[in-house]
Amino acid sequence: MRHKIEMSNPADLWVKEYGEASRLADEVSKMLSERGSLPPSGPETQRFLSGLRRRITILGTRLGKLEVDLASLPRKSISDKEMHKRQELLSNLRAKEKQMASALNMSYAADREDLLGSSKGTVDEVKRASGLDNQGIVGLQRQIMREQDEGLEKLEETVYSTKHIALAVNEELNLHTRLIDSLDERVEATDSRLQRVQKRLAILNKRNKAGCSCMCLLLSVLAIVILAVIAWMLLKYL
User: Fold this and answer.
1) Rg, C-alpha atoms of the chain
2) What b-and-e string marks burial along 178-203, b requiring 16 or more CB atoms within 10 Å of the CB?
3) pTM, whole model, 2 decimals?
């Protein structure tokens, strides 16, 4: 009982929720450190980055709730020193969340730059071509075309993997649709059977009532006959 009372205290609940947010921040930080071990592109990398961004979004939402809850705590529930300590902890965790979100955005930007190439690279190529003769320019153009082909291959790989993910999602949606349709058909069939059973039960109930009425009438007539015979025998022998 004492444990329940303590957990119902808003100040204690805030500490519990802060601990959960802190553990989530540590998980995000660990995932960011593992980002370098993954390939630049591919389905596995896309799933990893999607999960990472989802966790950062959840972390930001929890921190926003913690800020609101901390501001709405009754002043008598905690001391000024404790309030300042919690504000500092929350501020540090918010700064860490922003830093991790920025690192993720930089990772996305780096991947996009590796895939499509940067404008700075184009300027450097123009500078390189300015001091070349015709044969050197042709060689540079071929090199640039090879690099562009490699970028297009990476882009094709990304589009291909995205297509497969979309097809998989579509197949799953179709499966759920078929399951729902099958469930609707079974519900309709069961409803029809229940209606037929209810009609049969109603007919049997009527028959039972009619049979009981006939039996009661027959027993009544038989009882009257027996009483009449007994009365006749008494009158005859007395």
Assistant:
1) 41
2) eeeeeeeeeeeeeeeeeeeeeeeeee
3) 0.46
